[in-house]
Design brief:
Layout: H1 7-14, E1 19-23, H2 30-37, E2 43-46, H3 50-58, H4 62-68, E3 77-82, H5 89-100, E4 105-111, H6 115-120, E5 129-133, H7 175-181, H8 185-188, H9 192-213, H10 220-232, H11 240-247, H12 251-263, E6 267-272, E7 286-289, H13 292-298, H14 305-310, H15 312-331, E8 335-340, E9 346-353, E10 356-362, H16 374-382, E11 390-394, E12 400-403, E13 406-410
Parallel strand pairs: 1-4, 1-5, 2-3, 3-4, 6-8, 10-11, 11-13
Antiparallel strand pairs: 6-7, 8-9, 9-10, 12-13
Helix pairs in contact: 7-13, 9-13, 10-11, 10-13, 11-12
Length: 414
């Protein structure tokens, strides 16, 4: 069992007498982690099993009867329900059981899509639940090669939490491997020769067949065209009109499809920074797929190191954005922005965390220059109270102080 950064917080939370909701995209390791941290006597209900799912859909009271049939003299009996979104009525049953006896059961509900829950108006147990989210591997779990330089300062560090163990980490990887195959746990732990096939299967089975099974899309062919275009445009500013024209769909439908990807935890938006005094800011968001390897497969490409060579700068920028986003989600505070103006000023990412701003440029270069920092310096001058230092994340071999307020940071020190 490889160590996960979130395991310590999850163990701590599971000791509390509440319902626990764990969300995240498929293959992020939710079930594996829960099976590792939950006690062996946990009762497991797996709705990814068609037979199990059918029985509960045919008999909405079955879950209540099974729970009431458990020993009544055992306090804190864990009940783990996997792919809970497949049978939304379970949420009402859990509320009924929890409200009648808050200590007899400890419910852990795991899901990979919020779409069906929102569509059916499922009861997400407000006031009774803790919500957890699991993401693809961060650099803390999947160390870089070469090793991080100890004195390097990150714009958003993610240290192992107190009590956490960083003993059995996932295999280290270089930058090209990360850009080609991403950081889903199962992909990282597999042989490199198998990774492309596994990622293509993920795109086919999860992004296509699961959406079809849940009847979330009416025009399947148009949706597949949208999915390929959305993946290809990952990292760019959202262009609903352009994709609508390419697919023959309406802009409201395109917006709904992007929301579907967010509901399935396949992508996220990076909002435009609005705190600048400049009047000509662009306000549309960027959309990023949650994992580079999945992005390649969904775009109809065969994930490989050769793919990286096509546009390494763009893929590198997306990888940095995804890494920063995952850290912010785990820290549960802060936001990720970008900045672009119509007159050409652009900053790839702005990390907003604990009242401070850290502007970040991403360059594929091994030799960053002061010229690369001109927009960072402008931003620092405009926000002297919130932003004191900027970063160029690049492929240099050591941290370099290219200006008193700008550090060029090797990617493996991020």
């Amino acid at each position: 069992m490889y160590e996960r950064w979130y395991a310590t917080e999850l163990k701590r939370s599971l000791a509390r007498p509440f319902v626990h909701l764990i969300f995240g995209a498929r293959q992020t390791g939710k079930t594996t982690l829960l099976n590792h941290v939950l006690p062996s006597e946990t009762v497991r209900v797996d709705f990814s099993d068609p037979m199990e799912r059918s029985r509960h859909l045919a008999d909405p009271g079955l879950f209540l009867k099974r729970c009431r049939g458990m020993p009544s003299n055992r306090e804190g009996q864990f009940v783990f329900v996997d792919e809970v979104q497949a049978v939304p009525s379970v949420f009402d049953a859990v509320q009924h059981l929890y409200d009648n006896d808050k200590r007899r059961w400890r419910f852990v509900l795991c899901g990979s899509s919020a779409r069906k829950l929102r569509k059916t108006g499922a009861n997400l147990l407000p006031g009774r639940s803790f919500v957890h989210r699991l993401y693809p591997l961060t650099m803390a779990e999947h160390p870089p090669a070469p090793e991080r330089i100890s004195y390097a300062v990150s714009p958003l560090p993610l240290s192992w939490p107190p009590g956490g163990e960083a003993l059995n980490l996932f295999p280290p990887a270089d930058l090209e491997t990360r850009l080609a195959y991403g950081s889903l746990p199962g992909i990282v732990a597999s042989e490199e020769n198998d990774r492309s096939r596994l990622l293509n299967a993920f795109a086919m089975v999860h992004l296509e067949e699961e959406i079809r099974r849940e009847s979330l899309v009416k025009d399947w062919g148009a949706f597949l065209r949208f999915l390929e275009l959305a993946a290809a445009e990952s990292g760019h500013i959202l262009n609903y009109a352009g994709i609508a024209q390419e697919t023959g769909l309406s802009q409201p439908t395109i917006k709904a499809y992007y929301q579907l990807l967010e509901d399935m935890f396949i992508g996220f938006q990076v909002t435009a920074y609005s705190g600048s005094k400049r009047k000509n800011l662009l306000s549309s968001s960027k959309f990023l797929f949650f994992d580079p390897g999945v992005r390649h497969a969904a775009a109809g490409l065969n994930p490989s190191r050769e793919i990286v060579k096509v546009n390494p700068g763009l893929f590198f920028e997306q990888w940095v954005g995804v890494e920063l986003w995952k850290r912010l989600q785990y820290l549960q505070e802060g936001r990720l922005h970008y900045l672009r103006t119509r007159d050409g000023m652009e900053i790839d990412f702005i990390v907003e965390h604990r009242g401070r701003l850290a502007p970040i440029e991403v360059k594929w270069s091994e030799r960053p220059a002061l010229q690369d920092a001109r927009h960072l310096l402008s931003f620092l001058q405009e926000h002297p109270k919130q932003a004191s230092h900027g970063f160029i994340v690049c492929r240099c071999s050591r941290p370099e102080q290219i200006h008193e307020k700008i550090t060029a940071l090797p990617w493996f020190c991020l």
